[in-house]
Every structure is written in C-alpha cells, then in structure tokens.
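Ticket opened by: R.M.
Priority: normal
Category: complex prediction / small molecule

The reporter submitted a protein together with PBG and asked that the result be attached to this ticket for the collaborator who will pick it up next week. Submitted input follows.
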Amino acid sequence: MTFPIVRMRRNRRTPRIRELVRETEIGLHKLVYPLFVVDGENVKSPIGAMPGCFRFSIDTLVAEVNELAQMHIYNVILFGVPNHKDDVGSGGYATDGLIPRAIAAIKKSVADMCVWADVCLCEYTSHGHCGVIENQTVNNDKTLPLLAEAARVYAAAGADIIAPSDMMDGRVDAIRTALDDNGFEDIAICAYSAKYASAYYGPFRDAAHSAPGFGDRTSYQMDPANSDEALREVELDLDEGADMVMVKPALAYLDIVRRVKEQFMVPVVAYNVSGEYSMIKAAVQNGWIDHDRVVMETLLSMRRAGADIIITYFAKDVARILNSQPK
Ligand code: PBG
Ligand code: ZN
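Result attached by the on-call engineer:
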C-alpha cells in the first residue's frame, strides 16, 4: 500500500502520538557520568577544554556524587589523577590509592550509587603509557598482573563494575581470575573491547594528565580503519568472561556499535568521549548550535545504533533537559 492510503505524517500529528511511536529513549538510568579524582582537600578544579567538568578531591567528590543521586544519576565511572607517578604505575593498584579511597567514600555516603572503576595504568605511569614499558613498547604480559591487582583492589574497596581500558591481550581473563580467586566472583567486568587509537581523547588526556610521554597508543589501541577486528576483540573479551562490552569513541564508530549489537546478545556500552563533548560545548559557546537539542540528538544516535548504556559527560545536562521537558 502506498499514498494516499498510507500517510506517514499521521503518526507525527501530535506530541502524544509522536511519544507513542518513539523507538528509542534517553533515560538517566542508562547513563554513566565520568568523574576525575585528585589528591588533596577541597579541590574542584575546572578542566579547560571540558566546560562543566571538574577534577575533585575525595571530599568534594562525595558532595558531587550526592548531587548526582539527587538528580537521579546513579552510575559514575572514576578516573584517578594522582600527583605521584612512577614507571610501573604503582598508584594504580596501591590499596590506599586514590581510587580505592574514593570508592569507599562514595559507597559510605551513597550506598546505592553504582560505581564503575576504570582500570588502566596511564594516569599512574611517569611515561603515560597504559602498561609497563620494555624496549620502548608496552609489555603485554608484564602488565596483566598489575591490571589484575588494580581490579582486585577496586573490588575490595566496593566497586560494582570493573572497566579495563588498557587494551592488553588477555586482560579480561587475568582480571576475572583475580576477582574470582578473591571472592569477587559476582563483580561484573565491562571491557573496553573496541577501543580505538583516537584523537577524540585529547581533552581527557589534559584532564587526566595521561598523554603518553613518547610515541602513541597505536601498538595497543585499535586502528580507526578497522571494523571486523572490533568483532574479534569483542568475541575474545566475552570468551574471557566480560559481562558487558564497550565501543569507544562513540560518534565516529556508530557502525561498530551496530555490528556488535547485532552479532552478540550482550549489553553494549558506548563511550561518548571527551572530544565529542568538547566539540559540542565549543560550538555552543560560539552560538553556532542549540546545546540541548544537539546533546539529545547525539545521545539518541548512540541508542539508535544499539548502545544500551552510554558513558557521557553530558549526564548532568541530560538530567536538566529531561526535567525541563513538558510531561
Ligand atoms: C585511559 C582512558 C582514556 C579514556 C578513558 N580511559 C584515554 C586514552 O586512552 O588515552 C578516554 C576518555 C575520553 O576521552 O573521554 N586508558
Ligand atoms: Zn590507559
């Protein structure tokens, strides 16, 4: 059947009808808000290229998390930005490190906050790479036990979801084993499975002081030209015990999100990364685009592509936008 029997505009006639036939939605319970944690007290320092985002000391972090809970944002992912760095990233797996202390403080104050702990060494290493350096490159197998130890320490502190972002081979298996051997068999792993070597991480690396001191991350993160390879990465991580898989960045990789969602029946996470955030904020500051509409349209594109969950610096903006919409 076709026009004039079929009229697509009937389903667009009123806001109520449009709402009825809407296929995807943005719900706050599907969003994860990233938080940067620094040493010290009473610190809330703005991140230059990420307007609205801050680095928090643990005391101000707890206050922030309380505000998030009031806004009905119940998922956060933590990144440590320590003063002390060394060549093996020991701050990343120290029992009294920034992240375990931050996790414990959050859990004590807001017990039902779902705390994701990013696991990587680049914020803790003096050279800024995601693992141990040997012969000018990251040594995969020497990095694994350190990542596993970080995961164990974060789980012991109360983390709900362990999210390795290093892209070492076999890290999910190493982490799963360490968790299971220590009584954390119920703690989930969300693997950054298809993590690309992307220029969109620029603002994050400024925020987290984690830019590599030499070279780049192309020997461990994925080549932006590849798509089939992402499916292999996802398959391996699932075989090793990942409970959720992530595609990162999101916007330039929506085709990957879609392929992963179609091929594997598992929760798919898209990371709406720092550069994607900064581009929108910058255009808005120039008066070139409408902030609220562009933010929602962007996040919808990720849900439409197949993302179940979105990690996004826009989570607080979304809470405000959803609250301001007519009910
Ligand atoms: C570290 C890590 C990065 C991001 C999350 N974890 C950056 C990197 O690989 O350099 C990027 C997040 C963002 O850009 O918002 N392994
Ligand atoms: Zn890293």
